[in-house]
Prior knowledge:
The chain is an alpha/beta fold. Helices cover 32% and strands 18% of the residues.
Amino acid sequence: MRSIKEPERIPYLATQVAAPYQGLRPIPVSALLDNVRSLYNVGAFFRTIDAAGCDRLYLSGITGRPPHASLAKTALGAEETVRWEHHPEPVALIRQLREQGAEIAAIETSVHATDLYDWQPRFPVCVLFGHEVDGLADSLLDLCDTHIRIPMLGRKHSLNVATAGGVVLYELLRKYRALISPRALLDAGGIRP
Length: 193
């Protein structure tokens, strides 16, 4: 496990519009990248994991890891603040996360996939992203509790893996915030049942 360097300034959190997000970090969401070949995509995941306040990033297979200049170029320092771990073989990690109560979700279009916006995740959740061309290996897909697809309305049927990560992680932030916001307001005395 890598140590975390705290950022000196977080401008968004200093504004009033950030109030609904106070107390949410880290959200109980992690991501596993398996065999993601582009260091730029990996760097973009570091940056998104940081921005969405997710718990951690797992890297497996051939997925590159810090320190690396190409990764740092898109991570913009997030590789220094995000908790991350490298696991050469992800199967044991997935089993461990499941034993700890995490829902394991493959972000993969398949015949039995649930639409991202219809999915009601069980937190904590770990979302899996695979190789840019081949996706996730069958051995990993078989271990997942659910398969999630992002709606594709255009002529193309896929997104860049880092773009897909951004879509999914921010939808999980939205869903987690909606789940805990009423409870947080109750605790603060703002609403009565």
